[in-house]
Amino acid sequence: MRLRNESLVPYLFLVPAIALLIIFNLIPAILTLRQSLYAESAVRGAEQVFVGLKNVARIFNDPVFWKSLQVTLIFSLIVNPLQTVLALGLALVANKRAAGIKFFRSIYLLPVAVSINVTVVVWGLMVDPNAGLVNGILNQFRLLEQPFLSSPDQALWTIIMIISWKGVPYWALFFLAALQGIYMGVLEAAIIDGADRWQLLTRIILPIIRPIISSYWWPTPLSILHCLCPLVAHPGRTSAFDQCGHVRNLPARFHLWRPGCYCRHAHGDVCDCSGDHWAAIRALTHVRLVSTVWRR
Amino acid sequence: MSKLGKFVANATKYALLIFVAILVLVPLLWAFSASFTPLEKTFAYAYPFSWKAFIPVDFTTEAYVAIFQRGFGRAILNTLGLGVATVLIGGFICTAAGFAFARFDFPGKRLLFFVVLATFTIPADLTVIPRYIMVRNWGWINTWQALLVPLLANSLIIFMSSQFFREFPQEIIDSARVDGASWFRVYFSIVMPISKSLLFSLGLILFLSQWDSYFWPLLVAPDPTYRVVQLALTDSVQEYQTIWNQLLAGSMLAALIPILLLFPFQGAFINAVVGAVKE
C-alpha cells in the first residue's frame, strides 16, 4: 500500500487506538461529570432534572463522605511510601548475586501474575479471626491473636497488608529492571574506592533509579485505588467488610462499590462521589503529567 | 574477609532470600493444599496451625471435579480466547499508536498524547456506569464484543511502547525507506520482529487486563455462555454457604495460567521494562 500523502501516515497509525480511548474512556468520564449535575439516574430511564451543584452540596454535608475522603488520603499517604520502600528492598534482595537467584526471583514475582480477586479470596481466608492460618501461626507461637478485618482499628491496616502482597512485587519488578540496567563496573569501582553499602545505595543506586520512582510514584495511588474495588465487589467479602459498621474507616472507593451506597443514595450521588474523587486524584497527578508532557 | 565472616555473610544472604520467599509463598501454598482437601477440613490445619496446612494429607480432587462439572473449563476457554484476541488486536493497535508517537512529528501530537495520559489517570470504575449505558444502548449486552472491544485500547501499553520505540535505531528504518518500503511495511516486517521482547511483555499486561477483569463482565455479560474465569470463581460463593475448597480450587486455576505465561517471558518482561523506564 503506497500513500500519496505522507503526512497522513501517523494519523492512520493512531486512529484505532485514540478513537477507542475517546469512546470508551474520555466520553464516559465527561458523561460522569455531567451526570453529577442531574438528580435522577439515566440507569433507571427516569426523566433527568438539572440540579446544578446540589448533589455536590449534599455529599459535602455528608459526614461519611468526609470521613472516607480523609481515610483515602491517609491510606494513600501510608501505602505509597510503604510500598515504594518495600519494593526497593525486594528489588535489592532479588538483585543479589547468589546461586539459584533466578529461582528466587521467579518466586518473588509470582504475586504479579495472581489476580487481585484471587489475592483477596486467599488472604481474606488467611486472616479470618477464628479459622485463619495467620491466627493459627500466632497462636502456635503463643502470640496474641488478632481480629484483623473484623476490627475497626485493624481493617485498614489489614487491607494495606493484603494489597502490598501484590503491590510490592509489582513495583519491585520495575525497580529490578532498573537495577539490572546499572552497569556492574560502576558498583565495583565504587567498592574499590572504599564506598560502604549505605553509600552505594544512596549515592549510586538511588540516583540511577530515581527517574522511575518519580515516574511511577504518582500513578501508584491510582493503581491502588483501582484494586480496591474488587475487595468489596467480591460477594464473598462484602459481608465481612460490612460487619460492625467499620466500613466508615475504609477509603472512599469502598463506599462507591458498597451495595449500601447505591441503596442509601440516589445514583446521582454515586457519580458525584466519583467525580469529586476523580478531581482530587487528578489534582495530584496533574503536576506530574504536565511536566511529563512538556518535557517531550 | 575471614572464612567464618564469609560463611556468616553467605548464610545471612540465603536466610534473607528464603525468608522473603516464604512470605510470598505461604498464602499460595496453603491455598493450593486446601484446594486438594475435603470441604470439612479446609481450615482444619490452618487453625490450630500444623505443617499439614501446606501438604494435602487428606488428598482429594473433589473440589476440582465439582467446579469443572459446573462449567469452569468453559470459563477458562472463554477467557483464554478473549485474552488472545485482546493481545493480538489490542497489541497491534496500541503499539502502532506508540510507534506513531515515537517516530513521527505531526500537528496535534501533543494534544493526542495528552488524551492518552489523561485516560491513563481516569480510573476505569469512575467511567464504568456511562460506559455500561452506552454499550447497553448499542444492544451489546451478552455479546463477545462487549467483553472485548472496550479493553483493546490500553493507554499504559501505548505509553510503554512509545518509550520503547524512541530507542529504536533510526538507520534501520531509514535504509528500509530508501529501499522503497512503505511505512506499514517498515512497521510490520522490520519494527515488529525486532521488538519481540517488548511485544511479549506488553502482551502479558494486555492478557492480564482481560484475565483479571471481574466487574465489567459482571455488568455486560451475565449469561453463563459468556462466563469468564474471575466470575466463575464466585459460583462457589452461594447464598447460604461458601464452598471454600472449590473457591480455592478455582483461585488456584485462575492464578496458574498467568503464572505459566509469566515464567518463560520473565526475562523479556524485564528487558521491556528497562527499555520503557529509560528516559
3D structure, described in words:
The complex is a heterodimer of chains A (296) and B (279). Chain A has 296 residues and is an all-alpha fold. Chain A has a single domain, classed as MetI-like fold (Orthogonal Bundle). Chain A has helices at 9-35, 54-60, 63-94, 101-113, 116-126, 133-140, 155-181, 184-192, 197-217, 219-233, 235-242, 252-257, 259-264, 267-295. Chain B has 2 domains: 3-60, no CATH class; 65-277, MetI-like fold, CATH 1.10.3720.10. In chain B, helix 3 (72-103) crosses helix 7 (155-166), helix 4 packs across helix 7 (155-166) and helix 10 (196-211) runs antiparallel to helix 13. At the A-B interface, helix 1, helix 4, helix 5, helix 6 and helix 7 of A face helix 1, helix 3, helix 4, helix 5 and helix 9 of B.
Q: What's the CATH topology label of chain A?
A: MetI-like fold
**Second-tier CATH architecture of the largest domain in chain B:** Orthogonal Bundle
Shape of chain B: flat
The mean pLDDT of chain B is 85
Any low-confidence stretches of chain B, pLDDT <50, length ≥5?
Answer: none
Oligomer: heterodimer
Helix share bin of chain B: over 70%
- Roughly how many Å is the radius of gyration of chain A? 24 Å
Give the tally of structural domains of chain A. 1
- Terminus-to-terminus distance of chain A: 31 Å
Total number of β-strand segments of chain B? 0
Quick structural overview:
The complex is a heterodimer of chains A (296) and B (279). Chain A is an all-alpha fold. Chain A has 14 helices and no strands.
